[in-house]
Each structure stands twice: as structure tokens, then as C-alpha cells.
Amino acid sequence: ISQRAKDEKTRKLLSRIIRVDQAGELGADRIYAGQIAVLGNTPVGPIIQEMKEQEQEHLETFNKLIVEKRVRPTALLPLWNIAGFALGAGTALLGKEGAMACTVAVESVIGEHYNSQIRDLMEDDPEKHKELIKKLSKFRDDELHHHDTGLEHDAEKAPMYDALSQVIKVGCIGAIWLSERI
Amino acid sequence: MSTSTGDRNPPQDTSSGPGGSASSQTSNGGYNTQRTGQGAQYSDELDNSEDLVSEVEEEEMPEETEEEYQTKQAVLKASLPFVHQYGWTKKAIVAGAESLGMPSMVHGMFPRGGAELVFYFYEESNKELESFLKQKVTELKEKDEKIKTGPFIHDAIETRLRMIIPYIDKWPQAMAIQTLPQNAVQSWTNLSRVVDDIWFYAGDKSNDFNWYTKRGSLAAVYKSTEIYLIQDRSEDYTDTWNFLENRLEDVVSAGHLARNLQETNTVLSEGAKGFCVMTRNLLGMNNR
């Protein structure tokens, strides 16, 4: 396989990863914003606020990468903007447990997703992508921390926890699939 | 922009041209990138043996080799001078191949016929545009000047369109070929390349939906100017460049209009909210 084809393959992989990660972090940020809109004044408000600020940091990193690596952002950004806020506000209306259940579901999908991206990057060229792999690893750890925070705050006591969790996970996986391509 | 097959993977050739013997084993070598992507995605779910199968398949079906690629490029380059005589067709490619001393059967390496020649020319012009843009940016940096977006974009489009002028007698045919459904995707990719390059070197840093509006509007300007160009009869095509300037101004004023509308909307909604609050105060509703 020629060098040119190999470079093209790497470029496509990087493009896809950065595009979907930017979309994901925007989505996560908006989900937390929706939750804060409903639960901002409750005791759990500051915790969600802290998680939101971490997501904002992640988002800024990917915004910079989009420009740096000349990646096309996903055309569905406005859609994720609205859908994220709606999901956050909607689950928050089920109470604090609902919001935490949403967090747990989303963060578990994102954690797995970051892991598979890290695997793909290592498979392609561990040396060249060292910086990016490090960043993704840190973000994955942050997301898993959010996941654990959610569990600590009674996520599993949410109404219809299993069904809610499944629906949100499937939605996230669908959103990821779309953002990688569109 | 969203093609997963990439812009450098032409469909598999059926005859064995020079250095193309490995290709006869494959049926869809051009789609390898898609398969690899899927392989990586599903590797979590499939067991290891199926990973091995996809790996072996990759080795047996190489993408176009470097030698094939270079040969094709050489033939297409030699075919361009014959476009005036034969148009963007297989005949021109055959003439080009023969001028290099190759057998006329080489045209089998180009299943899309004349379209391959059009795309080759388009891609070469895009490369030339990119080096022009790079050079311009470097010059401006050395003089420590800031890039003025308007004139920069105007110059970029003018430069790119001027590359068509040597072939302008047969360019309408090329444009028609590009609108055929089987060529539409590649044409779209080529056009996206032009506008993306121009915006990137003009210093665009957008990372949200503006990325699309900027490129979409520039693509519209480019396309309409291209159409104007092929029927322009003025001296050195000055009418075309004036047309271009007007279209660019339209885009700028559309941007201003959009911003004004947004601001107006904010002011109006604030006003409406204030009116509601005032009404509630008057009716004493806010104190209940």
C-alpha cells in the first residue's frame, strides 16, 4: 500500500475522530446546560456545573483541533445543540435521579467510544498520534469520573432506570454514527 | 465532502495496463478504505478470526500502486494538448498515450473516459491554486501585512478561473461532463476542495456551522462566475471579474443582513418581554 494511500487513510481517521469528538463534547456541554436550567438551584446544581465546565474545556480543545488539522465539523452541530439541551432538561424534569441516570448513560457510551478511538489511533501509528492519544486518554478518564459521580448521586434510583438508560445509550450511539459521516 | 471513498481511488481497471497485473484479482479495490473503517469499528464485536480475514483480504487486494498512479498521471498530462482537437474524450486520452509511445489500449485504464481527463485537469489546477495561495500568505507574512479577506478571495477565484481560459473553447463540454450523475460526487469533491483551500488560506478559523455557510456561499459565487466566464466576450474577460466582484459584495451584504436580522430579533424579543412584564404590573398580576 503506497505512502500516499496510507496518508489518506490516516487523514480520514483523524478527521472522523476529531469531528465526532467535537460534536460529542458540544452535546455533553448542552446536556449539562439543560440539566442546570432545571436543577441549577438545587443542591446538585454545583456538581453538574463542575462537570459542565470540564466538558467546556474538552470542547475548546476540539474546537482548536478542528482548525489546526483542517477538519470539517459535522453539519449536524445545530441539531446536537438543541437535542442535547432537550435531553438534559427532559431528564432533569424527572428529578435529580433522572439527570444523574442520563449522565451515567451518556458518559458510559462516551467512555467506550474514546477507548475505541484510542485503539484505532494506536493501530494506525502510535508515535505520530502520541499527543492526541494522551489528550483522549485524559478526556476518557474525566468522562468516567463523571460516570462514577452520576452513580454516586443515586442515578440507579431514577424512574424506569433500565429503559431510560438503554434509550439514551442507543440515541448516543446513533448520534456518534451520524456525526462521523455527516 | 462526505464521500468515504476518497478522491484518489478511481474504479478498478479491467485490462492490465503497464504495471497493473495485481488489479485483476480485485473487484472493488477502490473501496478498501471503507472496509477498513468498518473493520475497526466492529472489531470489538467480532472475534479475532474475522479480524484476520479482513487483514488478509486487504493484502490480497492492494489499492492502486504508485506505479499505476504515476503512469495514469503521465498519460493524462500528455492528453491535455489534444483536448482542443478531440474534446474531453477517450480519443484525446488515446492520442496522449500514443504521443508517449504507449499502445492505444491504455485507454482501458480510464473507465470513466473523458471525465478522467476533466478531473485530472481540475485536480492539477487545484494544486496550482494551493501553491499560489501558500505563496501569497508567505509573502504577506514577510511584509508583516494582514490578509484583507475580500481582495484575497477575489484574487484567489480570479487566479483559479484564469486556469480554465486556455481550454475555454471546450470548457462547456467539461462542465456538462461534471454534471452527469456518475461524475457528480467527484465534481462536488473537487469544488469543495477549491473553496476549502481558499477559505483556509484566507485565514478562516470557524469551527461551527459557519464553516458550511462560508464555503457554500463561496461555491455559489465560484460556480456562477465560471458560467459567466464561458460566455464572456470582453477584452481579457474584464466583465467576468466585475461580475465576480459584484457577487462577492452580495455575499458580504447578505452576511450583514443576517447579523442585522439577528440583532433586530433580539431587540424585538426584549421589547416584547418588557411589554408583557409591564402589562402584568398594570394588572397587578406580579404581586399575587
TrEMBL record, chain A:
InterPro entries: Ferritin-like_SF, Ubq_synth_Coq7. Its EC number is 1.14.99.60. It catalyses: a 5-methoxy-2-methyl-3-(all-trans-polyprenyl)benzene-1,4-diol + AH2 + O2 = a 3-demethylubiquinol + A + H2O. Keywords: Iron, Membrane, Metal-binding, Mitochondrion, Mitochondrion inner membrane, Monooxygenase, Oxidoreductase, Ubiquinone biosynthesis. Fe cation 1 binds at E25, E55, H58, E143. GO terms for cellular component: extrinsic component of mitochondrial inner membrane; nucleus. Its main location: mitochondrion. It is a peripheral membrane protein. GO terms for molecular function: 3-demethoxyubiquinol 3-hydroxylase activity; metal ion binding; oxidoreductase activity, acting on paired donors, with incorporation or reduction of molecular oxygen, NAD(P)H as one donor, and incorporation of one atom of oxygen. GO terms for biological process: determination of adult lifespan; regulation of gene expression; regulation of reactive oxygen species metabolic process; ubiquinone biosynthetic process. Fe cation 2 binds at E55, E107, E143, H146. Binds 2 iron ions per subunit. It is an enzyme of class 1 (oxidoreductase). Its cofactor is Fe cation. Pathway: Cofactor biosynthesis; ubiquinone biosynthesis. It is found in: Mitochondrion inner membrane. Pfam families: COQ7. Component of a multi-subunit COQ enzyme complex. Belongs to the COQ7 family. Catalyzes the hydroxylation of 2-polyprenyl-3-methyl-6-methoxy-1,4-benzoquinol (DMQH2) during ubiquinone biosynthesis. Has also a structural role in the COQ enzyme complex, stabilizing other COQ polypeptides. Involved in lifespan determination in a ubiquinone-independent manner. This is 5-demethoxyubiquinone hydroxylase, mitochondrial.
UniProtKB/TrEMBL annotation, chain B:
Pathway: Cofactor biosynthesis; ubiquinone biosynthesis. GO terms for biological process: ubiquinone biosynthetic process. Keywords: Lipid-binding, Mitochondrion, Transit peptide, Ubiquinone biosynthesis. Residues 1-69 are annotated as: Disordered. It holds the Pfam family COQ9. The keyword Transit peptide applies. InterPro entries: COQ9_C, COQ9_HTH, Ubiq_biosynth_COQ9. GO terms for molecular function: lipid binding. Residues 1-41 have a biased composition (Polar residues). The keyword Mitochondrion applies. Membrane-associated protein that warps the membrane surface to access and bind aromatic isoprenes with high specificity, including ubiquinone (CoQ) isoprene intermediates and presents them directly to Coq7, therefore facilitating the Coq7-mediated hydroxylase step. Participates in the biosynthesis of coenzyme Q, also named ubiquinone, an essential lipid-soluble electron transporter for aerobic cellular respiration. PANTHER family: UBIQUINONE BIOSYNTHESIS PROTEIN COQ9, MITOCHONDRIAL. Belongs to the COQ9 family. This is Ubiquinone biosynthesis protein. It comes from Magallana gigas.
